[in-house]
Design brief:
Spore Coat Polysaccharide Biosynthesis Protein SpsA, Chain A, alpha/beta
Length: about 325
């Protein structure tokens, strides 16, 4: 019923633990596909030696998360696809619990579970993704202690890309060309972009708290300890300058591709305030990333083209 797709780049130990958690599932996946982006830490050899039954796709260069997921989804065979970060460990009942969500309704295209922090299982990583008024991806409950209110299942905007299950029928309907995830994004915002597109096409996302996973947030990409120290509470500040540029760029590409003018205007003050905070952050602490706006101009042509395709395919549908 379900194929698992994992993208990996130089995180052998994380990947090993992730794969072990898949081996102990009470409902086994049809297949597990690891897409390795030219790791140099022995990840490929570890998979070949310790998990010989796993399908391994080896890239000659780092094609980043979005492209790796697309490769795995294209290669996969099942009706449902679990996209999984390599820094995630699944509870042994995860697949058993979450796959039942597709029985709710035929328009359920995305399923997400209760994702907790590996280093503190009392803290939430995500209980579903939402689109904030400032146009940031908002993981509900992130950083909060687990409470009863988060143990109620229900509909959400989408699923966090760290551990999320998609219906293949949905992915095929909303893809642009051959891309399910936008490969221009590389990583960051790629899950919000897909969730937003799915919503526009009328697909729903559902949260199932009984399906539990554990995530080391930023485990694959955190590269620096921020300075000044008060910035360390912001996830964004842990990233290298190059990753921060991608993060900011993708924010605007997501808006260009998916937003409607009336909704953008309604939330303009929230969007403007967040944009202003990004600008002052860059100006004061990371002036080397200010040229990100040249990147936005470079990629905006492609984003506008993809937007036209999306809205052309949406003609005759209600504007969600």
């Amino acid at each position: 019923m379900i194929s698992v797709v994992i993208a990996n780049f130089n995180r052998k130990e994380y990947l090993r633990n992730c794969l072990k958690s898949l081996q102990t599932q009470t409902v086994s996946p049809l297949e597990i596909i690891v897409v390795d982006n030219a790791s140099s830490d022995g990840s490929v050899q570890m998979v070949e030696n310790e998990f010989p039954n796993i399908n391994l796709i080896r890239n000659n260069a780092n094609c980043y998360l979005a492209a790796a997921y697309n490769q795995g989804i294209t290669y996969s065979r099942a009706e449902f696809i679990l996209c999984l970060n390599n820094d995630v460990i699944l509870d042994r009942h995860f697949i058993e619990k979450i796959i039942k969500g597709f029985n709710l309704a035929e328009d359920t295209g995305v399923l997400t579970g209760l994702i907790l922090r590996i280093n503190n299982e009392a803290i939430i990583d995500s209980t579903g993704q939402f689109l904030s008024r400032s146009r940031r991806p908002l993981d509900r409950g992130s950083g909060q202690y687990l409470k009863k209110k988060f143990m109620v299942e229900g509909y959400v905007f989408g699923g966090s890309g760290s551990a999320v299950v998609y219906r293949r029928k949905m992915l095929e309907q909303i893809k642009i060309g051959d891309e399910y995830f936008d490969e221009d994004f590389k990583l960051f915002y790629e899950d919000l972009d897909l969730n937003w597109r799915a919503n526009r096409f009328g697909w729903k996302a559902y949260y199932i708290p009984e399906a539990v996973a554990y995530h080391l947030r930023g485990g694959t990409i955190k590269t620096e300890w921020p300075y000044p120290r008060f910035l360390n509470k912001f996830y964004f500040s842990y990233l290298s300058a190059d990753y921060q540029k991608i993060y900011i760029r993708n924010r605007y590409l997501t808006i260009i591709k998916n937003d409607c003018f009336k909704n953008y205007l309604k939330d303009f003050i929230f969007i403007f305030c967040f944009d202003l905070s990004l600008f002052f952050y860059a100006l004061l602490f990371r002036p080397c990333i200010l040229n990100v706006f040249l990147d936005i101009l470079k990629y905006s042509k492609s984003a506008i083209k993809k937007r036209k395709i999306i809205f052309e395919n949406l003609k005759g549908r209600n504007d969600l």
